[in-house]
Structure formats: structure tokens, C-alpha cells
Model the fold of this input.
Amino acid sequence: MSEKKVPTIYDVARAAGVARATVDRVIYKRGIVSPDTREKVLRAIDKLGYTANINASRLASKRTLVIAVLIPRFKEGDYWSVIYRGFQQGARAYKVYDVRTEFFLYDADDVASFLGESDKVLQARPDGVITNVVFAPELRQLAARLAAADIPLAYVDQKLDGTGYQVYCGADPAEGGFLSAFLLTHRTQVQEMAMVRLIRDNGANPNKVRREGILQYIQEHLPDCKVHTVFVPQNDPALLWDTLDRFAAEHPDVRHYLMSNSRVHLLGDWLRAHPDPQRSVVGFDDLEKNITLLQEGLVEYLVVRHIPMQAYYTIARFIHNIIGGGSRQERDLFMHNDILHRYNLNNYKESELNGVTASEHSPAQP
Done:
């Protein structure tokens, strides 16, 4: 019995009643094709079981693969500056495919800025878009517009379910919150604790799932513990100091503080000025300024999640999907949360902060 013939692009063209060049335009999204013609070609592809060798075609045509990255603006040393470097490392690792990243940076305190940059992304017509979750309703609108334009979507840091994304890489935020609450309270029967949050007047709620994990742990293991929420400003040290002073005066028995985002370093000056050997503080992420507080003993634990590797693996898996004509199934790569303490800090710095970089990992691994 002879082997079944593998369908070619010419077979698709004959079945659809169009020219080979039209099939090529539909497959590789080049040029203009009417909706009816595009539907005929897609039906023929599905009927024949044709699979395009997109990888070979891209290498032959030298066509640049453009990935749009829509993330918050940042300053050097911020969480998103580390994510930014991870994306750059990932793109460089795949330079054989002529990958170019285009960054669209929005103000995480301004929903209008997010909407404006979203419009710019759509106007750029990239091959794929990677973003994060800050303004959930507006992000759902963007995801719908990307789907209508047939532009695949991936997430880094956090994901928004029900948006048809192809790739997500990051730690499980609920698990991270659960773990942080355990680290804060596991040595004693805590009666009261403070969960410190940033003031946000724009409807943004990027750490909602993490806080849900924190509260879940408290409800399950310390149901009588009272959780106070303390809102502090991002860019007003004097007001932050005053807010913490007032809270401490009103709640002198609270000795357990948990910062629910990556900016526990904002508390640094206040903690230094108010030393308390009985105080326990837990934060997130191995930013240099947070590491300093850990070294000083002002923060007891950091829950860390390999920040640049989240970005590296997001873009690496996304490129594999796009080049290989990947499926539209949602794919999650959950990276583990680590516990960083001053007693394991030196080895961690050697192996994670100053040692192996994302660009040294093989592109074939994700």
C-alpha cells in the first residue's frame, strides 16, 4: 500500500480555486485577501490537512518576526526594568529567526495611557503581543480586538483567563500570597497583622489574586487574626512615613507587616528609624533595594520568582508557537516561588543575581 500523499500548497490552491500566491498570502498574512477568499483557502487547508512549514518559509524569506511588548513604564531597578531585560535576552537568543521586539510602555497609574498604547499596538500590526494585567476590563477589550485581527496574545507576570491567550509564564500569584502569609505568621499565633498596599486611584488592581492567597491562608490557619490594610503612597516619602507612624501609634501591638507588591523597599527608611527586634516583615521580589533590606535584617523574607526568566520563557515559548503555527490552546508555565532569607542570600546571589543569565539558556528548552 502506498503512503498517503502529503498535501502541498498547490493542492490547496486547486481545491480552493485560487492562485498559489493567494494561498501564500492567507497562510503568511501578506497582502490583502477578501474575507470570502480567505475562508475558501482556510476550508481547503482544513479539508486536506495541509500544514505549512512556516519556519522554513520564514528563514527563506528573511521576514522579521515582530513581537509587541505592552508593559508599564519603569525606572532602572524597578520590577519592570528586570522584565524588560528578560525580553531582550529572549529575543537575542532567537536572533536566528530575525525576531524584533517593539516596546509600548504605558503609565500603570493612568488607564488612558494604557488605552492609547493599546491603540498603537494594534496600528503596528505585530506578529504577536505580550502584555500583563493591570486594567482588567480594558485588557479584555484589547484581547478581543487582537483576536478579531488574528494577532496572538501572551502574558507575563499575571494572566487574565478567558482571553484566548497562547502563552503565560510566571509564578502562581495565589500560591505566592499563601506562602508569604505562612512565612509571616508560622512562628507564633499572630493576633493582628498589617497588609501594606499602594494607593491607586485609577481602578488598577494588579495584585488582587496574590492578596486573595494571603487572606485565604489567614482564614484557613489563623481565623481569629485581624488583617489591617494600610494604604501608602508611591511617590511621597513624607506622607508614607506619616501614614506608618499613625498606624503604629493606633495599633502598637501589630508587629507583623506584609507588603503585597514588589516595593517593600519603600518602607526601608521608616523601618530603619523605628527598629523593633520583635517586628517581622515579608515582601516580594529580589530587586536590589529589597535585597538591601534583607541584608540589614529589616525584612525577614522575600518571596521571589526569577523575574527575568519569566520574560525570557514567555517570549521563547511564544516565538515557538508563532513560528510553528502553534495551537490556540491556553498554555501556562508556572514558575516556582522561592524563599529568600539573609541566611541563604550569598549563594542565591552567586547563582541567580550575578551568575547564569537568561541568554545562556538553550532556545530549544522552553
